[in-house]
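dumping this here before i forget
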Amino acid sequence: MERFQPLESVEDVEEFYSAIKREKMTHKLSPERPYCYWTIETYDKSNGIRGGGGLGVLAADMRRVAEQLSVPFVLVTPFYPWESHQRMEDMKQIDFHTEQHYRDYGFEFIDTVRIKTSTTAVELEVIEKQLGSSRFLCITEPNFGELYSGESGSDHRLYQEVALGFGGYQALKLVGLRPAVIQLNEVATFFAAVARLDELVSSGMDFYEAVVYTRKHTLYTNHTLVQAAEASFNYSQFEQYVFPNIKSVAVRRWLSDKFTNGRIQLSTPTVEIAELRSGVSKLHARVANYHDINGNKIKFKSVTNGIHMRTWVLPEIMEYFYDKNILDKFDLPPEEKLEEAVNAVSAADIRKLKLAGRKKLNEILANRTDQYGKPVQIPEEALLFDFKRRFVDYKRPWLPFENPERLAEILEQNNAHYILAGRVHMGDYRMFDRLMKLLHLIDKHPVLRERVHYLPDYDEELGFALSVGANSSINTPIVGLEACGTSWMKDIANLGLLISTHDGGVADMPSDNYLSIKGKTEAEECTELYRQMEAAAAAWSNDFDLEYWVRKELVAYLAIISGSRMMKDYLNYLF
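structure:
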């Protein structure tokens, strides 16, 4: 899916870095001292690593943006030897697994490192793949399992996190790299910071000096609004998997002090070991409910997520943005005269580009099947709504179906189809049951059966296809529960109309910049959702309204959407 060339000229690289506010930042990043990004999940199927949702998509896009902008960058992540898939049989979703081999994706074996448990040592393979100024540095072993295997808080989950932290840090040393900064993508990566702290203390640095040094060079990026939702581990689990990997008595004692009633939530020591802390939208940074060991609320810096636009936006649309001076060579919108540039976007251009997107969508759908095991093709003249997000309670994928007759009426009167795509996390049996009930509701209604298509085995390819090929996307999280989301960004960048509640990154800008779902109750939100679906359909049949909404979305959100803007924000914050 990657369709870009990184910056090649020295002048271009220097021009990008000149936009970073702090002087001499480039002296702090180098190929030997790179930006090191730890993540338990990466969603980059082209490189053989399939994630579970937005956390992994963000990690992959961070690396892509770094490669494009020639930022020295190392993504430290597991290579999972197994990944899960789904297919439909007789209206039932069947889970199955496939084995992954890293050599099939161009990874090279470097050497092995070892981590310890209380009873044995585990040998981890270190593999890498260089991509311009960036690289994957992965740890793996045959029994590592798949992403999020085991229950939250289980021994295996803790083993995976320990292997990533301690094993990943050893891998970094193995290839001769010293991190200029460590970014922890959620608390599952906490042990990378512990490994660094332990190395400093074990090498002779005073414990408190080592803590200060580690804190100043560690950024914790949080994606979860409520601390209580985290997994916790007990002391005996740490005795088995964590403490055997720590050499320093002082570090072990420091970590032991973070337990309360024999249990630990990893966010507690994470916010202490990272002086820099970021939330992934303005709203998220403001309301994230995390506290330190003394009960004080933690402050987060807002760095809203962005996307790697050249991966997620139709190439024809990207060329159009360049030609109209809507984006520069760094994929950043101009700081001045953006509105003037966007006002040149015409309804005829929008329709032509979305027609190209529809053709791409149907090419990809030709190799997919719906809930009946049949391929889906969306007519060029038909309107298409979509919901393409992880299936979890707070995102409410069922909301448009609360009034089946009303939804059927909108689809039939506007010659519209609706595609439902997403994944239920393993072990979420309640959500899985709700999805199956929703599919049977659709099956029983003649209009919905014809016009609503559920596509299992959601992945990057399908996410891209729907972003470029749908006319309008639906985003219905309960307000206050979405940290950011990035699917909506891909829809706006691909000239679609967004129908959304005012939550996550959408709330970075006022709600009059998109088709907003408002209401004090869920019933009121449903009514507003249907009204906005009709408004979107009307806009696609009226040039003035179509131009009005597409231009408004681009002016408001294009800078937020840009992954290059996200990288600039992180570099400004870090240095």
